[in-house]
From TrEMBL:
<keyword id="KW-0812">Transmembrane</keyword>
<feature type="transmembrane region" description="Helical">
    <location>
        <begin position="481"/>
        <end position="500"/>
    </location>
</feature>
<dbReference type="InterPro" id="IPR011701">
    <property type="entry name" value="MFS"/>
</dbReference>
<dbReference type="Pfam" id="PF07690">
    <property type="entry name" value="MFS_1"/>
</dbReference>
<feature type="compositionally biased region" description="Low complexity">
    <location>
        <begin position="13"/>
        <end position="30"/>
    </location>
</feature>
<feature type="transmembrane region" description="Helical">
    <location>
        <begin position="407"/>
        <end position="428"/>
    </location>
</feature>
<protein>
    <submittedName>
        <fullName>Transporter</fullName>
    </submittedName>
</protein>
<dbReference type="InterPro" id="IPR036259">
    <property type="entry name" value="MFS_trans_sf"/>
</dbReference>
<feature type="compositionally biased region" description="Basic residues">
    <location>
        <begin position="595"/>
        <end position="604"/>
    </location>
</feature>
<feature type="transmembrane region" description="Helical">
    <location>
        <begin position="512"/>
        <end position="535"/>
    </location>
</feature>
<feature type="transmembrane region" description="Helical">
    <location>
        <begin position="176"/>
        <end position="195"/>
    </location>
</feature>
<feature type="transmembrane region" description="Helical">
    <location>
        <begin position="232"/>
        <end position="249"/>
    </location>
</feature>
<feature type="compositionally biased region" description="Basic and acidic residues">
    <location>
        <begin position="619"/>
        <end position="636"/>
    </location>
</feature>
<feature type="transmembrane region" description="Helical">
    <location>
        <begin position="261"/>
        <end position="283"/>
    </location>
</feature>
<feature type="domain" description="Major facilitator superfamily (MFS) profile">
    <location>
        <begin position="140"/>
        <end position="573"/>
    </location>
</feature>
<keyword id="KW-1133">Transmembrane helix</keyword>
<feature type="transmembrane region" description="Helical">
    <location>
        <begin position="370"/>
        <end position="395"/>
    </location>
</feature>
Length: 636
């Protein structure tokens, strides 16, 4: 899943990354890092809005410290990056441009694309997703949030059915039975780099519908399974398709939300997906107790069917796809083949795009020390979170004698902590915006290190919650509300803050490469989430729940210094990053180039002004001489 050689790829990246030079031999899939310049006007983030609910000023986003993460989540490859790919194609093929039209293939020259026939979607165009009616945008956010929730819920609802699955298939090893959870998380990891990029080629809506349909179909074999191995294998492929909702639905939210309301919309969207792991055992436990374990799959089909039905009425929101569709429609309506858009031409193959998305996250993960720290920290926290879905049934079902349905209620503490962390977003925003850590290029905005302050809060709350829960959940003489309120709630808050604001730090630090950095992080944390639950049963049996929980809390305590390290010396650490350093060098070159262009334009304007004055003076002199000539002719 990586490039042929990480060392060779990294070497190529060092020599070619962000050099600002263009070559006729440059293609998308060689080398791993290309000079992806940000476009001056972001098609999906217009500076002005025409809906009364999306009016914003140009600096409104300065108040949103989560804007780097929000924009990174809205793209697998950013639209500026996509624009750069198309522009690169045009630059590399000035003499032999292959123009792939929407719905057909033809070869034309660049000169045959008249500028007057270029198709765009302006910010005041009713077709622009941000100008959709308010009720429809709200419907879209609710739909993609609900659909993502179903995919996440199905991952952990499986854990509530383990006892009956083990009984029916005569399985004595709980780690073997847990493989259904493991393969599901591995499927989500694989899908984040394989299925998610398809939205750039075909748009978001087709990917949603195809992947949801495949997800529903692949649940059926799990409900009819005659062996655990069938479920283990099929759940992997079901998650592979279901991951499209997790990876792409934030992009839909970004597509339809203005800068002013983006933070609010992302917060509302995240409520359901972030609580999916918690509601899975809760719902799955009651279904398992009263209807049987197979009904956990039938319920997932029903919920997924509702998601498919709702998603069917969600329109396409990915702007490049909308512009291509508009160009194709204009050609069909007028019969004039001259209509075109910049997204029609694409010399990049599907395999090239996949190769880029498969290689770059892993190259970054291997070569960037910043990602070493964040990937380990967030992955351990994420893995321990999923280990809880094995540990809680051991504590509450085996030791306290609760039924699976009542054990599902024990996860409400984590869910409450998650909700509190989301609802306290105005407090976190105030802390970040008032931080003395400022962006040196734009002092009105906080630096990424300001975000690390909230990461520190999350890093401290997580082990505190873990350790308190470990020593108050047992013995059974301690009331369970103590462990849930003072253990699970801070644990849930810490997990959510660490995940959201840790991801936001990476997005702010890596800029146009944020999507790749986050994709690598998603793969690694999913692998940890898949692996740690396998060790849970043996560890809790050998060490006892109290000491096993203490061991996990100790791991989290050991990782607490990471966010504090970046809060204190983050700017210096980022300055030593090869990729970030090259991005800064490219930015400086662009600024110098822009300054030279401004100076040349000013000199040209001044020269034109002097020429105009000279011509005016010559004209006046000519008029005077002509007047004198006429006077002499008249004898004056």
């Amino acid at each position: 899943m990586t490039a042929d050689s990480l060392d060779q790829s990294a070497a190529r990246g060092t020599s070619h990354t962000l050099t600002g030079s263009s070559s006729n031999n440059t293609t998308l899939d060689s080398p791993p890092f290309h000079p992806e310049k940000e476009s001056r006007s972001h098609p999906s983030r217009p500076s002005s809005r025409h809906s009364h609910l999306t009016t914003t000023s140009s600096d409104s986003s300065n108040d949103d410290p989560l804007s780097p993460l929000e924009h990174a989540l809205g793209r697998t490859t950013s639209i500026p990056q996509t624009d750069a790919i198309y522009q690169q194609d045009a630059d590399n093929n000035n003499n032999h441009l292959t123009h792939t039209r929407t719905g057909r293939t033809s070869i034309t020259s660049a000169a045959s694309r008249p500028p007057d026939y270029e198709v765009t979607i302006s910010t005041d165009d009713p077709e622009h997703p941000m100008n959709w009616p308010f009720w429809y945008r709200a419907y879209t956010i609710i739909t993609v949030s609900y659909s993502t929730w179903v995919v996440v819920l199905y991952s952990t609802s499986y854990t509530a059915t383990l006892p009956k699955i083990m009984d029916e298939f005569d399985i004595t090893s709980k780690p073997i039975a847990t493989l259904g959870l493991t393969t599901y998380l591995l499927g989500l990891a694989a899908g984040s780099v394989i299925v998610a990029p398809m939205s750039e080629l075909y748009g978001r809506r087709p990917v949603y519908l195809v992947c949801l349909a495949a997800f529903i179909v692949l649940i059926i074999p799990c409900g009819l399974a005659d062996s655990l191995s069938e479920m283990v294998i099929v759940r992997f492929f079901g998650a592979l398709f279901g991951s499209a909702m997790i990876s792409n639905s934030p992009g839909t939210v970004v597509d339809i939300s203005s800068d002013k309301y983006l933070a609010l919309c992302m917060s509302l969207w995240s409520i359901a997906p972030l609580n999916g792991p918690v509601t899975g055992p809760l719902i799955g436990g009651f279904v398992n107790d009263y209807l049987g374990w197979r009904w956990g799959n039938w319920l997932a089909i029903i919920l997924s069917g509702i998601a498919f039905f709702l998603t069917f009425f969600v329109r396409e929101s990915y702007l490049p796809t909308l512009i291509k569709q508009k160009a194709a429609r204009r050609r069909k309506e007028t019969g004039d083949e001259n209509w075109w858009c910049k997204y029609d031409q694409r010399s990049v193959s599907t395999w090239g795009l996949l190769k880029l998305n498969l290689s770059r996250p892993f190259i970054l993960a291997v070569t960037e020390p910043i990602l070493w720290c964040f990937n380990i920290w967030i992955s351990v926290i994420y893995g321990i979170l999923y280990l809880c879905f094995i540990a809680y049934p051991i504590i509450f079902t085996q030791h306290r004698g609760w039924s699976p349905s009542l054990t599902g209620l024990s996860f409400l503490g984590i869910g409450l902590g998650t909700l509190l962390s989301i609802f306290l977003e105005p407090l976190w925003r105030k802390m970040i915006n008032s931080s003395p850590k400022r962006d040196p290029l734009n002092p009105s905005r906080p630096a990424p290190e300001a975000t690390a302050l909230i990461m520190c809060v999350g890093a401290v709350l997580t082990p505190i919650g873990q350790l308190v829960f470990s020593w108050t959940s047992l013995p059974a003489s301690i009331h369970p509300s103590i462990s849930l309120l003072f253990g699970s709630v801070p644990f849930g808050m810490g997990n959510t803050l660490s995940f959201i604001y840790g991801s936001n730090y990476l997005a702010g630090a890596y800029g146009i490469y944020a999507a790749s950095a986050l994709a690598g992080n998603a793969v690694m944390r999913s692998v940890f989430g898949a692996a740690l639950p396998l060790a849970g049963p043996a560890m809790y049996q050998a060490m006892s729940p109290q000491w096993a929980g203490t061991f996990l809390g100790g791991l989290e305590v050991m990782l607490v210094p990471i966010p504090f390290l970046f809060y204190k010396w983050g700017e210096r650490i980022r300055g030593k990053s090869r990729v970030i350093r090259l991005m800064r060098e490219e930015r400086d070159r662009e600024e110098k180039t822009a300054e030279r262009r401004r100076k040349r334009a000013a000199r040209r304007a001044a020269r034109d002004g002097r020429d105009a004055e000279g011509e005016e003076g010559e004209g006046e002199k000519t008029e005077v001489e002509e007047g004198k000539g006429r006077g002499r002719e008249m004898g004056v």
